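Q: What residues go here?
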């Protein structure tokens, strides 16, 4: 059951936030303060994603669980799932920017996010441990899953930051991010929900 849920959420991870996003937009009550805080969180989340994708590259844009290489450099040296950390912060910023039923919406969002990603991460960890064996077990033992640690994983890595690849890989996310920011600003300007 856990594996099937992980596979389902992994395949659908780009689409599962859409119902919540539509709800947040429909009942939006943006303020200048909610937009500023939300925009800050969205930018922070996207920068974390760009940093992670700059090291992992196109390995992150797949419908298949697993990876061709074990990436342990850059943000992966501090947290095992930097892209999911970035997703969390970016999406939290969306909730805050639209100011829909705050603060209750933050709790709803957190519940759905961690419910979904619990199963995804368990599935990915099993696949990575199967593929990379002891190397992944050592990495997993030293690097936290979601909350970045103060120490870094100091094992030589062939992966270096590639900003061009990061931006190219993040193109769709950046377009979606821009559309959400524009929608929030337009709704605020028009006085939507006030």
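A:
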């Amino acid at each position: 059951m856990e594996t099937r849920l992980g596979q389902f959420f992994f395949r659908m991870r780009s689409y599962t936030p859409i119902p919540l996003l539509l709800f947040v937009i429909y009942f939006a009550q943006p303020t200048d303060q909610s937009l500023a805080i939300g925009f800050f969180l969205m930018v922070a989340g996207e920068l974390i994603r760009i940093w992670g994708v700059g090291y992992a590259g196109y390995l992150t844009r797949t419908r298949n669980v697993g990876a061709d290489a074990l990436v342990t450099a850059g943000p992966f040296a501090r947290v095992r799932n930097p892209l999911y950390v970035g997703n969390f912060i970016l999406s939290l910023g969306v909730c805050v920017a639209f100011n829909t039923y705050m603060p209750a919406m933050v709790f709803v969002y957190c519940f759905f996010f961690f419910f979904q990603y619990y199963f995804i991460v368990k599935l990915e960890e099993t696949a990575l441990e199967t593929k990379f064996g002891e190397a992944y077990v050592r990495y997993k033992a030293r690097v936290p899953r979601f909350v970045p640690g103060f120490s870094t994983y100091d094992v030589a890595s062939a992966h270096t930051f590639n900003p061009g690849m990061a931006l190219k890989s993040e193109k769709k996310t950046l377009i979606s991010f821009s559309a959400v920011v524009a929608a929030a600003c337009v709704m605020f300007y028009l006085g939507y929900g006030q």
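A: Context that may help when evaluating the design: The chain has one domain: 2-189. The chain is about 65% helix and 0% strand.
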